[in-house]
Amino acid sequence: MRINPDGTYFIIGDNCITGENVKEENILGLLTSVIRNGKVLDMNDKNYIRFVHFWWFIFPLRKVYKRMKAFVHRIGSFVKRKVLKIK
Length: 87
What we know:
- By secondary structure, the chain is an alpha+beta fold.
- Helices cover 43% and strands 18% of the residues.
């Protein structure tokens, strides 16, 4: 996602809501393209870069959504077990 002032890289993996800082020597490769449904998606394509910027922009909202989803699930489980007596 970005290079930090100390030279480390801030990355966010697939299906993660938190990022991490890694040193350059711990990076094994760089993704340049993906084949999805028989189509090649170039990581340098302007539309893909726009998508990544949008996805990064809404990152805080995605974190809140995941936490709210987990919270609602816990409440639902509590209601089923304690109120409705369903196991």
